[in-house]
Design a protein that fits this description.
The chain is mainly α. The protein has 4 domains: 129 residues, Rossmann fold, CATH 3.40.50; 98 residues, Glutamyl-tRNA Synthetase, Domain 3 (Glutamyl-tRNA Synthetase, domain 3, Alpha-Beta Complex); 48 residues; 89 residues, Orthogonal Bundle (Arc Repressor Mutant, subunit A). It is elongated.
Length: 494
């Protein structure tokens, strides 16, 4: 059996609408690889008019926590990835936390036992480990030898009646399995590699592969898009689907994101953090992180280096996802972030900025704030730059950078500032063109042009020698503050 029978839209089982799921385990922060997987699922579903399900796989009670779940949910919300069903959204296939679905796993296991497709196993951990070591020593596959499967029915019934602790194992039928993977192509799993494996542990909790397959079936999942490290789990999930009589989803195993040494990116190494939250706190915006992650493994078919969400929706295709792992390049992410910031609109910048905005900026009317953000966006590398770039427009008197102080030191520069103050104060047409014409007129009268004209004027107005065009600066600062700053500079008080 392959990972799907018959085809419909985008390889979906015939007659079924596309349904995907993102299923994080709340045992830590959201990994950049997890964020990319979530984004690939989201793009695939939205491109094909399907649904995206968020499922929390929290049956690892010792390592899972409500705090980690909240962190994952918050990071996903920050990324702007919306879900059609999930713990917050609800839906017809809930609950969406595996810890709240234990009854379903127990009932599913009991049905398989009743049909002779699974059986109770009374072997203790010590016996299992001893037999495992013996199999390895004999050069045999270290899987379960099936002895409880052959237990006489009377003995089994007696031990169950005595409430003897036991797990539930799937009775694996000898056969080869084939997966038609939407990224990797055909993958074969030979017969005899997998023995009878546990579905329910003796404490009643499901194993990962059982819970995953039961939930995918119950939630009508048509496509499972996940990291290639899950590929070895797939035959077990196919076996469970077959035992349940459920159509298996189509699988797509995407390559891993790697460190520079091509090791799995699982922790901080150098400057490359694997945590979405770290990049969020570093002033990276969600559109930049998603744009960068999307092209780690996916090729759009041209040489574009940054694609918006809308552009990715137009071209996303699992056939364009490569099979090789991609190196995470922190410098390229920072470049992408600067690119996105430089091309963003004011409203978008305001939405991303949040607490990165100084209080004076947050107090501005929305339209004024957006104009201000658009004026400084070209100087932003991260949101952390906002306070410094906005200061000249918000502070009563901007602090002079060393280059600006040097530009204002000559007597000719101070004279220029005095002349500009008088001319701008008297200017009838306070507009971009009016300011531009006035600066040129004053410069011509004093025999100044180029750097000798514009650097002192900019230094007086902003405390810097680089930045937005002066007419735009003047419009944002306003006539009164422009005149005052120029007069302070002329008097040596800047």
């Amino acid at each position: 059996m392959s990972g799907g029978a018959g085809t419909g839209p985008a390889g979906a089982p015939a007659g079924r609408a596309v349904r995907v799921r993102f299923a994080p385990s709340p045992t830590g922060w959201l990994h950049v690889g997890g964020a990319r997987t979530a984004y690939f699922n989201w793009l695939f579903a939205r491109r094909h008019g399907g649904a995206v399900v968020l499922r929390i796989e929290d049956t690892d009670a010792e390592r899972s926590s409500a705090e980690c779940e909240q962190g994952v949910l918050d990071d996903l919300a920050w990324l702007g990835l919306d879900f059609d069903e999930g713990p917050r959204e609800g839906g017809p296939h809930g609950p969406y936390r595996q810890s709240e679905r234990l009854g379903l796993y127990r009932e599913s296991a009991e049905r398989l036992v009743a049909r002779g497709l699974a059986y109770p196993c009374f072997c203790c951990d010590e016996d299992l480990e001893r037999r495992r070591q013996a199999a390895l020593a004999a050069g045999c596959p270290p899987h379960y030898d099936g002895r409880c499967c052959a237990m006489p029915p009377g003995e089994r019934a007696a031990r169950l009646a005595a409430a003897e602790p036991h797990s539930v194992r799937l009775a694996v039928r000898p056969r080869a399995w084939r997966l038609d993977d939407l990224v990797r192509g055909e993958v074969a799993f030979p017969e005899g590699v997998i023995g009878d494996f546990v579905l329910l542990r003796s404490n009643g909790l499901p194993t990962y592969n059982f819970a995953c397959a039961v939930d995918d079936a119950a939630m009508g999942i048509t496509h499972v898009i996940r990291a290639e490290e899950h590929l070895p789990n797939t035959p077990r999930q196919l076996m469970v689907c077959a035992a349940l009589g459920a159509p298996p989803p189509r699988y797509a195993h995407v390559p891993l994101i790697l460190n520079r040494d091509r090791s799995k990116m699982s922790k901080r190494q150098g400057e490359a953090s694997a945590a979405v939250g770290d990049w969020r706190r570093a002033g990276v915006v969600p559109e930049a992180l998603l744009a960068y992650l999307a092209l780690l493994g996916f090729h759009p078919g041209d040489e574009r280096e940054v694609l918006s969400r809308a552009e990715l929706l137009e071209c996303f295709d699992l056939a364009r996802v490569g099979r090789s792992g991609s190196i995470f390049d922190a410098d390229k992410l920072r470049w992408t972030n600067a690119h996105v910031l430089h091309h963003a609109g004011g409203a978008e910048l305001a939405r991303w900025a949040g607490d990165a905005l100084p209080p004076a900026a947050r107090a501005l009317p929305p339209a004024e704030l957006e104009r201000l953000l658009e004026a400084v966006r070209g100087n932003l590398a991260t949101l952390g730059d906002l306070a410094g770039e906005l200061a000249p427009f918000l502070d009563e008197r901007p602090a002079l950078e060393p280059d600006a102080a040097a530009a204002l030191a000559p007597a000719a520069a101070r004279a220029l500032c005095g002349e500009l103050a008088a001319a701008l104060e008297a200017l009838a047409d306070w507009s971009g063109e009016g300011v531009k014409s006035t600066i040129r007129t004053v410069g011509a009268r004093l025999g100044l042009e180029g750097r000798e004209l514009y650097q002192p004027a900019r230094a007086a107005l902003t405390g810097r020698v680089h930045g937005p065009e002066l007419p735009l600066v003047a419009g944002l600062i306003g006539r009164e503050r422009c005149v005052r700053r120029l007069r302070d500079a002329a008097a040596g008080r800047a």
